Amino acid sequence: MSIFERIANFIFRIARGDSKKRWLYTPVVAFLFLLFMSLFVIAALSTDRWLNLPSIIYLPWTLIAAIIMLIAGAILVIWTWAQFLRAKGTPVPLNPPQKLIVSGVYACSRNPMLMGIFLLFFGSGIIIGSLSLTFIYTPLLIVLFYFQITKIVEREMELKFGQEYLDYKKRVPRFFPRIGKAS
Asked: Which residues are within 8 A (CB) of 150 and not within 5 positions of it... i.e. 6 or more apart?
Protein backbone atom coordinates (compact mmCIF):
# COMPACT_ATOMS: atom_id res chain seq x y z
CA MET A 1 0.00 0.00 0.00
CA SER A 2 1.42 3.39 -1.01
CA ILE A 3 1.79 6.34 1.34
CA PHE A 4 -1.04 8.05 -0.55
CA GLU A 5 -3.38 5.09 -0.02
CA ARG A 6 -2.47 5.08 3.68
CA ILE A 7 -3.32 8.78 3.95
CA ALA A 8 -6.62 8.22 2.10
CA ASN A 9 -7.46 5.33 4.45
CA PHE A 10 -6.57 7.44 7.51
CA ILE A 11 -8.85 10.29 6.36
CA PHE A 12 -11.60 7.78 5.54
CA ARG A 13 -11.42 6.22 9.03
CA ILE A 14 -11.63 9.59 10.79
CA ALA A 15 -14.40 10.84 8.47
CA ARG A 16 -16.45 7.75 9.30
CA GLY A 17 -15.62 7.87 13.01
CA ASP A 18 -16.96 9.71 16.04
CA SER A 19 -18.89 12.86 15.12
CA LYS A 20 -17.69 14.79 18.18
CA LYS A 21 -14.04 14.15 17.28
CA ARG A 22 -14.65 15.20 13.68
CA TRP A 23 -16.16 18.52 14.80
CA LEU A 24 -13.29 18.97 17.26
CA TYR A 25 -10.66 18.43 14.54
CA THR A 26 -12.42 20.60 11.94
CA PRO A 27 -11.24 24.05 13.16
CA VAL A 28 -7.70 22.73 13.69
CA VAL A 29 -7.46 21.35 10.15
CA ALA A 30 -9.09 24.51 8.72
CA PHE A 31 -6.55 26.65 10.59
CA LEU A 32 -3.65 24.54 9.30
CA PHE A 33 -4.98 24.85 5.74
CA LEU A 34 -5.26 28.65 6.05
CA LEU A 35 -1.76 28.75 7.54
CA PHE A 36 -0.43 26.71 4.60
CA MET A 37 -2.12 29.06 2.12
CA SER A 38 -0.79 32.12 3.97
CA LEU A 39 2.73 30.73 3.82
CA PHE A 40 2.46 30.63 0.03
CA VAL A 41 1.60 34.33 -0.06
CA ILE A 42 4.38 35.19 2.41
CA ALA A 43 6.87 33.11 0.41
CA ALA A 44 5.82 34.86 -2.79
CA LEU A 45 6.21 38.33 -1.30
CA SER A 46 9.59 37.34 0.14
CA THR A 47 10.67 36.00 -3.24
CA ASP A 48 9.63 39.27 -4.90
CA ARG A 49 11.80 41.22 -2.44
CA TRP A 50 14.71 38.77 -2.49
CA LEU A 51 14.87 38.72 -6.31
CA ASN A 52 13.97 42.41 -6.50
CA LEU A 53 11.21 41.60 -8.98
CA PRO A 54 9.24 44.46 -10.48
CA SER A 55 5.54 44.78 -9.68
CA ILE A 56 2.88 43.85 -12.17
CA ILE A 57 2.03 46.94 -14.18
CA TYR A 58 -1.50 48.12 -13.62
CA LEU A 59 -3.23 48.51 -16.92
CA PRO A 60 -7.00 48.77 -17.12
CA TRP A 61 -7.26 45.20 -18.42
CA THR A 62 -5.01 43.74 -15.70
CA LEU A 63 -7.05 45.37 -12.97
CA ILE A 64 -10.32 44.26 -14.58
CA ALA A 65 -9.00 40.70 -14.99
CA ALA A 66 -7.89 40.61 -11.34
CA ILE A 67 -11.25 41.88 -10.10
CA ILE A 68 -13.11 39.31 -12.24
CA MET A 69 -10.89 36.52 -10.87
CA LEU A 70 -11.38 37.67 -7.27
CA ILE A 71 -15.16 37.91 -7.63
CA ALA A 72 -15.48 34.58 -9.48
CA GLY A 73 -13.15 32.88 -6.98
CA ALA A 74 -15.05 34.25 -3.98
CA ILE A 75 -18.39 33.16 -5.48
CA LEU A 76 -17.10 29.63 -6.08
CA VAL A 77 -15.65 29.30 -2.58
CA ILE A 78 -18.77 30.68 -0.86
CA TRP A 79 -21.12 28.61 -3.06
CA THR A 80 -19.24 25.38 -2.35
CA TRP A 81 -19.07 26.11 1.40
CA ALA A 82 -22.83 26.67 1.37
CA GLN A 83 -23.40 23.36 -0.40
CA PHE A 84 -21.24 21.55 2.16
CA LEU A 85 -23.04 23.18 5.08
CA ARG A 86 -26.48 22.39 3.61
CA ALA A 87 -25.35 18.76 3.35
CA LYS A 88 -24.41 18.89 7.06
CA GLY A 89 -20.65 18.73 6.57
CA THR A 90 -17.64 20.91 5.92
CA PRO A 91 -14.99 21.08 3.20
CA VAL A 92 -12.49 19.83 5.80
CA PRO A 93 -11.74 16.25 4.69
CA LEU A 94 -12.08 14.91 8.24
CA ASN A 95 -15.65 16.21 8.56
CA PRO A 96 -17.27 15.95 5.12
CA PRO A 97 -20.95 15.58 4.31
CA GLN A 98 -22.02 11.96 4.50
CA LYS A 99 -23.71 12.24 1.11
CA LEU A 100 -21.91 12.87 -2.20
CA ILE A 101 -22.67 16.37 -3.49
CA VAL A 102 -23.33 16.22 -7.22
CA SER A 103 -25.66 19.19 -7.75
CA GLY A 104 -25.14 22.92 -8.17
CA VAL A 105 -21.61 23.83 -9.14
CA TYR A 106 -20.52 20.23 -8.39
CA ALA A 107 -22.53 19.13 -11.44
CA CYS A 108 -19.98 21.01 -13.59
CA SER A 109 -16.70 20.40 -11.74
CA ARG A 110 -15.58 17.88 -9.13
CA ASN A 111 -13.35 20.49 -7.46
CA PRO A 112 -15.01 23.91 -7.79
CA MET A 113 -13.72 25.11 -4.41
CA LEU A 114 -10.14 24.63 -5.54
CA MET A 115 -10.92 26.43 -8.79
CA GLY A 116 -12.19 29.29 -6.63
CA ILE A 117 -9.02 29.24 -4.52
CA PHE A 118 -6.84 29.25 -7.63
CA LEU A 119 -8.76 32.24 -9.03
CA LEU A 120 -8.40 34.05 -5.69
CA PHE A 121 -4.65 33.45 -5.72
CA PHE A 122 -4.20 34.60 -9.32
CA GLY A 123 -6.38 37.67 -8.72
CA SER A 124 -4.58 38.48 -5.46
CA GLY A 125 -1.20 38.16 -7.16
CA ILE A 126 -2.22 40.68 -9.78
CA ILE A 127 -3.86 43.08 -7.29
CA ILE A 128 -0.83 43.16 -4.99
CA GLY A 129 1.48 43.30 -8.00
CA SER A 130 3.39 40.12 -7.13
CA LEU A 131 5.00 38.43 -10.11
CA SER A 132 6.04 35.41 -8.08
CA LEU A 133 2.57 34.87 -6.56
CA THR A 134 0.97 35.15 -9.98
CA PHE A 135 3.45 33.18 -12.07
CA ILE A 136 5.36 30.90 -9.67
CA TYR A 137 3.53 30.19 -6.41
CA THR A 138 -0.04 29.94 -7.71
CA PRO A 139 0.97 27.48 -10.46
CA LEU A 140 2.99 25.56 -7.84
CA LEU A 141 -0.08 25.46 -5.60
CA ILE A 142 -2.14 24.12 -8.51
CA VAL A 143 0.39 21.35 -9.13
CA LEU A 144 0.47 20.42 -5.42
CA PHE A 145 -3.32 20.28 -5.20
CA TYR A 146 -3.53 18.33 -8.44
CA PHE A 147 -1.31 15.59 -6.98
CA GLN A 148 -3.10 15.73 -3.63
CA ILE A 149 -6.45 15.29 -5.38
CA THR A 150 -5.36 12.55 -7.76
CA LYS A 151 -3.36 10.59 -5.18
CA ILE A 152 -5.36 11.04 -1.97
CA VAL A 153 -8.76 12.74 -2.28
CA GLU A 154 -10.09 10.70 -5.18
CA ARG A 155 -9.02 7.45 -3.49
CA GLU A 156 -10.69 8.51 -0.25
CA MET A 157 -13.87 9.45 -2.15
CA GLU A 158 -13.87 6.02 -3.82
CA LEU A 159 -13.61 4.36 -0.39
CA LYS A 160 -16.41 6.51 0.99
CA PHE A 161 -18.90 6.52 -1.88
CA GLY A 162 -17.88 3.54 -4.04
CA GLN A 163 -19.63 3.15 -7.39
CA GLU A 164 -21.61 6.38 -6.94
CA TYR A 165 -18.35 8.36 -6.94
CA LEU A 166 -16.86 6.34 -9.82
CA ASP A 167 -19.95 7.14 -11.94
CA TYR A 168 -19.76 10.82 -10.92
CA LYS A 169 -16.05 10.86 -11.77
CA LYS A 170 -16.84 9.60 -15.31
CA ARG A 171 -19.56 12.23 -15.81
CA VAL A 172 -17.96 15.34 -14.33
CA PRO A 173 -14.48 16.73 -15.10
CA ARG A 174 -11.95 17.28 -12.31
CA PHE A 175 -11.61 21.06 -12.70
CA PHE A 176 -12.80 22.73 -15.88
CA PRO A 177 -16.45 22.37 -16.91
CA ARG A 178 -17.00 20.90 -20.35
CA ILE A 179 -18.02 23.35 -23.03
CA GLY A 180 -20.81 22.24 -25.33
CA LYS A 181 -22.84 19.06 -25.07
CA ALA A 182 -22.42 16.96 -21.96
CA SER A 183 -21.45 13.39 -22.69
From this structure: none
